[in-house]
Design brief:
- This protein is an alpha+beta fold.
- Among the domains are: 119 residues; 120 residues, Heat Shock Protein 90 (2-Layer Sandwich), CATH 3.30.565.10.
- The protein is 55% helix and 9% strand.
- Strand 2 and strand 3 form a beta hairpin.
- The longest helix has 86 residues.
- It starts with 44 loop residues before the first helix and ends in a 6-residue tail after the last strand.
């Protein structure tokens, strides 16, 4: 009685990642603006302040660690300027990068600080390199600006400061390695962010597809229940019509026969009303009209359970049926659903479980009908996925307000449990 497996290929849409740190305004009631009827998402200002503080503090600490003096006329103004520029990185990231590098060059060439040529702008380098998309190719700006800064530094220290070329390249080379590592980390972060966004989008798309498929199957199941209800009620009303004709013909000749026909008609009518009332919450607006012609007989219900057991036994499966209560009092929709659960469970047992014995327990009370089908097969695998048969049983039971579960049975094998409430209406 193992479940079938089925997989559906999911198409994951290609969605570009939003700009790093940017909170896009969401405006309701028209175009952009902040007028009445609009709701704007506030930008995370605290992040900007944190980046600005990190840059200012980092430049001061880095200068001290490098053994260079911290001067009020050079190092402190440069650290403050680089931090303040970061407050504008959301709107003009490339401009902030270029302006930051220009400020560093100005301070270094004026000999107001001995801080590095590149590392004081590490934060804005990271932000620009990480915020790279096909629509905003900013990685090339980070690489190009970094190479220009390094070449300018080597040329200045060699031609102006009078250092040997080997020494100038050696001093700037450490910053070059640091910049390369920083950009590599930024690119890795960018790729990870894109993967995370695409994964979330794919999961959301898969969940949406699953819901759509569940809704579609639920609609199909409701239509099937509608057809079964039509069959039951149409058949019952046909019997009532026949009995009324008997009454009409026998009223003058045989009063006893007429009374018997009326009693039969009343019983059949009451059964039809009960069947209709039990599904009134499920089918409020039928989509199909009754077709003209012969009225079909009702679908198989619990009365056909004996034939189902015989067919299963003929397939080589020993089936034991334990019944408590009277199946004849169960309304047609509940009986139909119970029969389908038993039928599908035994079918799965024969096809998948490699079982020798199956037990069907039918517990009928005034409030509900309980169905339990177990087998002694191999049981479900660890990666078993519910197939259409299990999902169909679950949807059919849920459509009648019942509960359903299926899985490994205690002691081995497989077990299906279904409980379907009986409508409270009594004709």
């Amino acid at each position: 009685m193992k479940t079938e497996t089925g997989y559906a290929d999911q198409q994951v849409p290609d969605r570009s990642r939003p700009e790093i740190g940017h909170a896009r305004p969401m405006v309701a009631g028209g175009g952009p603006g902040t007028g009445a009827g609009s709701a704007v998402v506030r930008r995370p200002v605290w992040r900007d302040l944190a980046l600005a503080g990190l840059t200012t503090f980092g430049v001061l600490v880095g200068t001290a660690v490098a053994g260079a003096p911290i001067t009020y006329e050079g190092t402190v103004p440069m650290a403050t300027t680089l931090g303040l520029l970061l407050l504008a990185h959301r709107r003009w990231p490339v401009a902030v990068l270029l302006t930051s590098l220009a400020a560093i060059i100005a301070m270094r060439t004026a000999e107001l600080t001995d801080a590095g040529w590149v590392w004081p702008a590490a934060v804005i380098f990271f932000v620009v390199a990480a915020d790279d998309t096909s629509a905003r190719p900013r990685l090339r700006w980070a690489i190009g600006a970094g190479l220009f800064q390094l070449l300018f530094a080597v040329n200045w220290q060699w031609s102006v400061d009078g250092q040997a070329a080997q020494r100038a390249i050696g001093e700037v080379g450490g910053e070059a390695v640091s910049l390369a590592l920083l950009i590599a980390v930024a690119v890795a972060y960018r790729n990870w962010s894109r993967w995370r966004t695409e994964l979330a989008a794919g999961l959301a798309h898969a969940e949406q597809e699953r819901k759509l498929e569940a809704d579609r199957r639920s609609a199909e199941e409701r239509l099937q229940i509608a057809r079964e209800l039509h069959d039951v009620v149409a058949h019952t009303l046909t019997v009532v019509g026949v009995q009324l004709r008997v009454v009409d013909e026998a009223l003058d000749d045989s009063t006893a026969e007429a009374r018997a026909a009326l009693r039969t008609a009343q019983e059949v009518r009451a059964k039809a009303v009960a069947d209709l009332r039990s599904l009134i919450d499920v089918l409020r607006s039928p989509d199909e009209r009754s077709e003209a012609g012969a009225v079909p007989a009702p679908q198989t219900d619990l009365a056909g359970l004996a034939d189902l057991v015989v067919r299963s036994r003929n397939s080589g499966l020993e089936v034991v049926v334990e019944t408590s209560g009277d199946p004849a009092v169960v309304s047609a929709p509940v009986a139909l659903a119970s029969y389908r659960v038993i039928q599908e469970s035994l079918t799965n047992t024969v096809k998948h479980a490699e079982a020798r014995r199956a037990t069907v327990r039918l517990d009928i009370t005034a409030d509900s009908v309980g169905v339990v089908v177990t087998d002694d097969g191999v049981g479900p695998g660890p990666d078993a996925v519910p197939g259409h048969g299990i999902n169909g049983m679950r949807e059919r039971v849920a459509a009648l307000g019942g509960t359903f579960r299926a899985g490994a049975a205690e002691g081995g094998g497989y077990a299906v449990h279904a409980t379907i409430p009986v409508a409270g209406f009594r004709p």
